[in-house]
Amino acid sequence: MSLLDIRNLTVKFGGLTAIEDFSMNVKEGEIHSLIGPNGAGKTTVFNVITGVVKPVAGRILFDGTDITKEETHKIVKFGISRTFQSVVVFKYMTVLENLYLGYHSRLNISMLNEIIPNKKSSEQIWNMYRSALEIADFLDLKTRLLSYAGMIPFAAQKMVEIGRALMSKPKLLLLDEPAAGLTEVETEKLKKIIRLIRDKLKITILLVEHDMPIVMSISDKITVLDFGRKISEGAPEQVRKDPKVIKAYLGESESA
Ligand SMILES: Nc1ncnc2c1ncn2[C@@H]1O[C@H](COP(=O)(O)OP(=O)(O)OP(=O)(O)O)[C@@H](O)[C@H]1O
């Protein structure tokens, strides 16, 4: 079943057409990668899915609901969360507090009960704490919960960002270049975690990534963008051999 259905999307920034008539389907339970050379439009697709950028044409259906015109906070409630290309942690907050931030869409506490807790609000805070512990355990962050997020190693900060995205209990997780800046060993660990997120937490994954070995080894399906248009789609071995994909990437390295 298709969890995310992007139909005929077009996005313009002034005179620049960043995405043109782009369609793709992400099936429930899959790790689906969206790749393409620099500036192809991958992050823009994420920004449209999460309501940050509005398209001039096209629709985004999530779990059968049209979310094209929804605001970002509503989209999180529908079950989509994301990480960002440059790691975004609140450096002067602890790892635990950073994780808590991802839970806000699940909290339903009045301002009064934030100051004077009642049974319902205390229960919710307790559940938030339990979720944070479970996620910290899952991401190997348990010993860092009380450290300032800005003081822990870069790879652990990336885990905090993933953890914060998991705290909203999404059905779909959008990962924007999670391997950027990681060493080979850290990338291997990340790969395992992405698989576990899908297999154990049953969360569907849409991955934007430049690291081809990771993309080729963990993706069920790959969609390739170039200059805002879809140029290829299919299983990794199929996409890897596609002359259009080879040409798009060669063009990039020639101009670099
Ligand atoms: N807010 C914006 N205003 C104007 N142009 C933008 C904006 N966001 C993106 N663009 C342009 O849209 C195009 C697609 O950008 P986008 O960041 O989506 O590409 P990308 O595939 O994610 O690139 P990279 O792999 O380098 O991160 C680029 O030409 C970019 O300069």
Automatic annotation (TrEMBL):
Provide a GO biological process annotation.
L-alanine transport
**Where does the signal peptide begin and end?**
none
The record's listing under Pfam families reads: ABC_tran, BCA_ABC_TP_C
Task: List, in alphabetical order, the Gene Ontology terms for molecular function in this entry.
Answer: ATP binding; ATP hydrolysis activity; L-isoleucine transmembrane transporter activity; L-phenylalanine transmembrane transporter activity; L-valine transmembrane transporter activity
Q: Which residues form a coiled coil?
A: none
Q: Which domain of life, per UniProt? A: Bacteria
UniProt keyword terms in alphabetical order = ATP-binding, Nucleotide-binding, Transport
SUPFAM superfamilies in the record: P-loop containing nucleoside triphosphate hydrolases (SSF52540)
| GO CC annotation, single | plasma membrane
The record's listing under Gene3D superfamilies reads:
P-loop containing nucleotide triphosphate hydrolases (3.40.50.300)
Identify the residues that the record assigns to the ABC transporter domain, covering every copy. 4-252
**Which PANTHER family does the annotation name?**
AMINO ACID ABC TRANSPORTER ATP-BINDING PROTEIN, CONSERVED COMPONENT OF ABC TRANSPORTER FOR NATURAL AMINO ACIDS-RELATED
- Provide the protein name: ABC transporter related
Q: What is the scientific name of the source organism?
A: Pseudothermotoga lettingae (strain ATCC BAA-301 / DSM 14385 / NBRC 107922 / TMO)
